[in-house]
Amino acid sequence: MAELNISERQSGDVTILDMDGKITIGEGSVALRTAIRRLLEEGKKKILLNLARVSYIDSSGIGELVSSYTAINKEGGELKLLNLTQKLQDLLTITKLLTVFDVYESEAEALASFK
Amino acid sequence: MLHPRHPGSVWSSKNSRGLHNHGSWSGLCLLTVTLETTELRFPSRIEAVEEAARAVAEFLSRAGVSEDVAFGIDMAVREAVTNAVLHGNDKDETKFTDLSLKLLPGAFEITVHDQGTGFNSSNIPDPTEADNLLKSSGRGIFFMRNLMDEVEWSMDPEGGTTVRMLKKV
């Protein structure tokens, strides 16, 4: 089984990536990077990452979230985060990245927030 | 006792109490009681991070630590081993990364040793500063320092760098 499985859904012009597994150095981080690059190449620039089933993330995974955020912003798009686990929320808090990311607990609210 | 539990890895595990002389100063000996020790050596490839994490999980499970404490130690070890493999040993599989896990009275002590040339730990940029917030790397040591109670690096006389981390329980 892959370290990180990513399923794609579409809601209007927003692409939702349901992530299941670990975003860690190596396979998990690469899978996220590949998915984001592909979406940008397809012109999909409004992206919601559903992290409810992300069991673990390390500094490389958090770095990949930051890279995704900057890459999407550079293309004039938006990246938002949905359903952070408590651990991930703690890690984003101590790194002050909660001040950077737009984070939601409700998918409906997250979808409505995209411009 | 050696347990070849993972290909390319060498394990040594002790489950007995031990008294270890950590040297002397002005005639005083510093003795530490070690309740359990696990030692692991592996070639410097990225898969070593998961192997180290599995060893930590087994060690902490035997020790019966809380989920919160286990999370912090697990993450700190992953970051330390990642640094040893990527930066210390530059993914050179002929070089080894050594991991030692010790249960002391009231604390866990973890050391990770690489065969690299070392670095200046006082010269690490703060990833929470505004200029660094959107950088994609540079948070590993920050997590180690935040999740553990003590983190210190030393250059070994025979070469290589050792990071020693302590988590009080």
Q: Which helices and strands, and how do they pair?
A:
The complex is a heterodimer of chains A (115) and B (169).
Chain A: E1 4-11, E2 14-23, H1 27-41, E3 46-57, H2 59-74, E4 78-82, H3 86-94, E5 102-104, H4 107-113
Parallel strand pairs in A: 2-3, 3-4, 4-5
Antiparallel strand pairs in A: 1-2
Helix pairs in contact in A: 1-2
Chain B: E1 10-14, E2 18-25, E3 28-34, E4 36-43, H1 47-63, H2 67-88, E5 96-104, E6 107-114, H3 140-147, E7 150-155, E8 161-168
Antiparallel strand pairs in B: 1-4, 2-3, 4-5, 5-6, 6-8, 7-8
Helix pairs in contact in B: 1-2, 2-3
What portion of the residues of chain B fall into strands of 2 or more residues?
A: 25-35%
Series of secondary-structure elements of chain A, N-terminal to C-terminal: EEHEHEHEH
Helix content of chain A: 40-55%
Largest sheet of chain B: 6 strands, antiparallel
The count of β-strands of chain A is: 5
Spatial order of the strands forming the largest sheet of chain A = 1-2-3-4-5
Count of helices of chain B?
3
Instruction: Name the biggest interface.
Output: A-B, 21 and 20 residues
Please tell me the overall pLDDT of chain B: 84
Hey, roughly how much beta strand do the residues of chain A contain? 25-35%
Radius of gyration of chain A: 13 Å
Mean pLDDT of chain A: 96
